[in-house]
Design brief:
This protein is of the alpha/beta class and 384 residues long. The protein has 12 helices and 16 strands. It has a domain of 247 residues: HAD superfamily/HAD-like (Rossmann fold, 3-Layer(aba) Sandwich), CATH 3.40.50. The relative contact order is 0.18. Bound molecules: magnesium ion (MG). InterPro entries: CDP-alcohol_PTase-I (IPR050324), HAD-like_sf (IPR036412), HAD-SF_hydro_IIA (IPR006357), HAD-SF_hydro_IIA_CECR5 (IPR006353), HAD_sf (IPR023214).
Amino acid sequence: MSTTTVQPLSTPVEEIPLNIESPQDIGFVFDIDGVLLKGKKRIEEATDIINYLSERKIPFILLTNGGGMTEKKRIDFINKTLQLDKYPINEDQLIQAHTPMRTLIPHHKRVLICGGPKDDVREVAESYGFEDVIRPIDIIKANPTIWPYHMFSDEQIENWGKDPSITKLDVDMVNCKENLPIDSILCFNDSRAIGAELQLILDLLNSENGVLGTRRTEKSSKPSIPIVFSNNDFLWSNEYKQPRFAMGALKIAVLTIYEKINGKKLEQLTLGKPEKVCYDYAHHILIDWRNVLLGKKSPGNLCLPKLNDAPVNSPFKKVYMVGDNPESDITGGNNYNWGTILVKTGVYQEGDFELNPEISRPSLGVFANVKEGVMAALKLNGLA
Ligand SMILES: [Mg+2]
């Protein structure tokens, strides 16, 4: 096997070979883009190794900072692209950046959902079970003067915006008929209407208990209603020659303006890799999936752990994070004391460690592709 194993430098984990007898005592967590897929195309070795793990009932889940569509839609696409006809991956095994927000449902009924293409994330939020989903376009429809520079077309407002009589968003400062408070702001995906979203988010954070059109007098680091960002990625890459702004850029803008208004730093929650909260949630879901494989649980009954609560008594002797991005996948995995496997099929390029010695190194090593990395982990632990 052609592997280039680099010496881990500042990683807190060390690869001590374990003699694991049960295939269900080891688990794998895969990043998607650059590990299983390259853009919209499959990485061939990914198909082999996913089938290999599924056949042996070795637990694995997928963990991505991407989002903007339902878990079902993305998993259908992955199964089709990877040609996983025999052992399709279950949607329960997929964690997108916004998936952990489903744990907020019991206490967040009426939510403002920001970001995402078209009006797609409305469907995502409703699929999680949020009772009352408000989108920025609904607010613009209720009162366009709230952000007169909005770029929504009349057709978009007509097709995507819900009527104020349904949303109870009569955002009229003079003659407010029915204007129900919003419980929280959830930034699901990269903003497509950054001006409107910035204004509405800051309005709500500084409102009286989440009622649009009001302004609290108190200046506090605690906002009127909570805000959650699905990830902290500052940049992303597309066909353009320079990286483009992502969710992290919106977050910086929100934090900066909030501090300008309040003189204090905004209290907020950020999900996604490499945050611990994201790995805690993934760990719970991996345990859940193991229970499904052992016949102790049926699919479609995911647990709803409290965010930031780590599982107690994990049944896993070893869990590996497999990723292509040292900054998110590997940093997060190392900080969480999981084994880490870096692959060369995505963001990481040969020579990156020499160029930037500060970036996180994987505990197991750098491998040509996901299949080689996983097989090395299974061999090391006596399972292959
Ligand atoms: Mg990736």
